[in-house]
């Protein structure tokens, strides 16, 4: 007996049926239809179908749905406690399923949200990177522009500093030449005065030594002097040719003719023009030849061989 009892105890217990299944099986066993149950209980057929298919909402199970099930059980002669107990187990299982479903949905939602957040952060990182690159490029361009501006200023200053001593030396040379010419003129005038004085003294001595002279020899002397008067050598015609200058940039110049006369000197501004004439050849000095165009005797003067920043010294023709 004990062996049989143990064997029966070890047999697997069949899973308990749900409340709706119990009611459906009992109805079919009695040969009743859902329409008959609906008419007897004054309920809709859809509600009877919902009960038999165990489609219960948690709030309905807790309230009036239990009354419907109890009435259904009484009508088909089933124990109310058995049916309500099955309903309770069904509700717990359904609640657990709902919790699992909610947890699964929550997990999927969190995973989806994490992907969205990851994508959002990726887009934000790309935007920050592009903005940083744009800012860095602008900084580099500003730095390069400032460096080029400083370089150009330094080059202009260096050219001015290199030209200033040159111009100063040219002015000194010009002043020395003018002083030398003035001294030569003064020396020449002094020698001429001394020579005239000597000639006058000699003439007085001759007059004192020979006070009595006939008129006829005097006439002969005057004739001889007239005859022996030095012939004037015809001076060659000096060539005079026009020199014109057009300035497209500021430039220091100095122009002298063959006599040493300074026709023009100083800094000329962009847009100015000069028309000079004197005794050729001309000696021309240009501090910035790239900013000057010249014509001599209506013919253009080629200045392309003079590089920027170099002083040009030209003799025309």
From TrEMBL:
Any GO molecular function: DNA binding
Keywords, ordered alphabetically: Membrane, Transmembrane, Transmembrane helix
Database matches in PROSITE patterns: HTH_CROC1
Domain HTH cro/C1-type span(s) in chain numbering: 23-55
Superkingdom assignment: Bacteria
Pfam families (UniProt xref): HTH_25 (PF13413), RodZ_C (PF13464)
Transport keyword on record: no
Segments passing through the bilayer: 116-136
The keyword Transmembrane appears for this protein: yes
UniProt-listed PANTHER family: CYTOSKELETON PROTEIN RODZ, PTHR34475
NCBIfam families given in the database record: PRK10856.1
Name of the protein: Helix-turn-helix domain-containing protein
